[in-house]
Amino acid sequence: LLQDSLGGNSYTVMICNVSPAKINAEEILSSLRFAERAKKIQNKAAVNRDPKSEKILELMRENQALLAKVGRLETHISHLEQNY
After folding, report:
1. Contact 34, 26 (CB under 8 A)
2. pLDDT mean values, one per 10 residues, the chain (84 residues)
3. Residue 33, Cα to own-chain centre: how many angstroms?
4. How far is residue 35's CA from residue 29's CA, in Å, rounded to a whole number?
5. Contact 18/28 with Cβ under 8 angstroms?
6. Maximum distance among all alpha carbons in the chain?
7. Distance, CA of 54 to CA of 79 (rounded, Å)
8. Which of 18, 36, 64, 65 is the most buried (most CB within 10 A)?
9. Among 83, 9, 1, residue whose Cα is nearest residue 46
């Protein structure tokens, strides 16, 4: 239930509420054990990226590379035409 909140791309604050009453001792221990286990969870956060934006950036990079290639080819053709 708390997997996304305990590790990932969010900050999580856990408050473990305990009572000094002896009648609640078992529940207190259970809560403290859970809090201790949750504190040890470590995940590697990944940057949230929109797939559409990623595709747009990829296509823009490809477009720039192709435009540069076309420019080089046009220059090469121009040199060939001058030599013949």
Report:
1. no
2. 61 81 90 86 75 93 97 94 88
3. 29
4. 10
5. yes
6. 100
7. 38
8. 18
9. 9
